[in-house]
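Handoff note, outgoing to incoming analyst
You'll be picking up this chain. Sequence as last confirmed:
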Amino acid sequence: MKSVPIGYLKDIESNQNLAVGKKWDGFSETIVISNGQARLFNRSGREHTLNVPALTSKRLFIHDCEMQAEGVGPDGKLGSTKSVLGSSPQYATEFQRQHGSLKLVCHNLVGLRGESLLHVPYGERLPYLADIVTSLRSQGLDILIKEELVTIGKCDYFQMIIAQGGEGVVVKNLRGLDADLVKVKRVKTWDVVIVGFTEGKGKYSTVIGAIRYGAYKDGKIVEVGKCSGMTDAERAMFAVTPDTFIGRVIEVKGQEVDSKGGIRFPSFQGIRDDKRPEECLVEDLVD
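Most recent structure output, in case you need it:
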C-alpha cells in the first residue's frame, strides 16, 4: 500500500466518502467461520488457528462468513505479534497465557453465507461486519475488535493516533470495492554517522549497496543500522572514494527507532557537513 504525506489528510478532510482508521502494526489475517467453527489463515494461506486457542474454545452461532483482520499482539507491538503468529502453536499458547491474548482487529467482510461480497461497496459491508463482530463478542470471542473509522476530523484523529504511540492511519474508500487506498504515517529524521557500506548487487554491482550508519556512545562509535534511498548518482559518488565518507554525518528519514537504535524504514536524505560526528549520540536515537 502506498504511503502519502500528512498533507493528504487536509486535502480529503471534507470528503465523506473517505474514512480513516488506525494503521496497526500487526499481521494481515483472514478469519473463516464455517459450521460454527473459526479458523485463521495468513495471506499465503498458512493456517494459524492453533496459535490462537481463544478461536476454538467454543462453538459459534453465526452465519458462515469470511473476515479480514489485523492480528495484533497483547502489547500492540510487532514483536509480540510475531511471538504469537510467527511461532509454533505450543510457544504461542504459552506466550498468550503469560502476556495476554492476541487481538484480531476486523476491518473487512469479504464473504457471507457462502457468497463473495467483493462486488459490494466497502461502506455497505461495514454494518454487516459490525453486527457479526458484536454477536461473536457476545458469545465470548472478545479477542475480536471492530475497526474504528472516522470521516470527520481526519487530521485530529491522525494526531491522536500519533500521540498514543501509533504509526499512522489508513485511508479507506467507502464507495470503492477495494477498501484500502493509502496509508499516512509519521515520519521523522535523525542524524547519524557513516561507518561503512555494503557491497552492491544486481544493477548496483558496480556501486554501493547500502550505507552502514552508527552513533556515539560513551565516546565510541556504535553501528546501529543500514539505509538506502540514494539516487544512482549518489551511489556512484560514494563508490568512487568510499573511505573519504567514513565518519561524515548524514540525515536519515524513517518511521521510528527500534529497541536496538535502528531506524525502521530508513531512507538516506543527504550529507550534513554542518554537524560534527560526535554530536550524533545513540541516546538521541529515540522517537
